[in-house]
Amino acid sequence: MKLIWLIIYLSFLIWSAISPKEYFTWFLEVIPAIIGGIILAFTYKSFRLTRLVYILILLHCVVLFIGGHFTYAEVPLFDYLKETFNWQRNNYDKVGHFMQGFAPAMIAREIFVRKNIVNFPRWRNFFILCFCLAFSAFYELIEWVVSLSTGESAEAFLGTQGYVWDTQSDMAFALLGAILALLSLSFIHDKQIRNLTSHST
To answer: Where exactly are the structural domains of the chain?
Structure first.
């Protein structure tokens, strides 16, 4: 599992770095995945996560690597979907922001459950959603600061494509991702946490 995860992660990272659309945008898009990979490497022995969460993190990283390579406004598959469904824009960035809620929700849930931070399930879910929405808002603030600092060179990073409600819809998709993750994966996540903790004791 660990070797397969690492091969997929590095393969997509290397592919993403080969002749991307724009290296500055590539760096901005993939740096969260690189930082995340480093954190996972350093915490693997001290706080090993469930297989489910590792898979979700990998999927999120792949989404970031693809967005970094093409830029979120020019992913070819979503250009095709744009023409097919008569969309006004390339909507791959919404996939990225959906994953920005979907994967972090389960990471936060694992920490909350295993560290006994919040034991009451409904309150735990509430705080997880608050965390995911705050994280999404924080990322939008980062995009704003980068845009102010670099001017036009950050346009591909922002990926608004002229959509006036892009920031709000980004956060809405992150919130939707977090909600769906909690609704669909909590049962299997609890089972994997029990198996992991029973083997570690």
So the answer is: 2-200
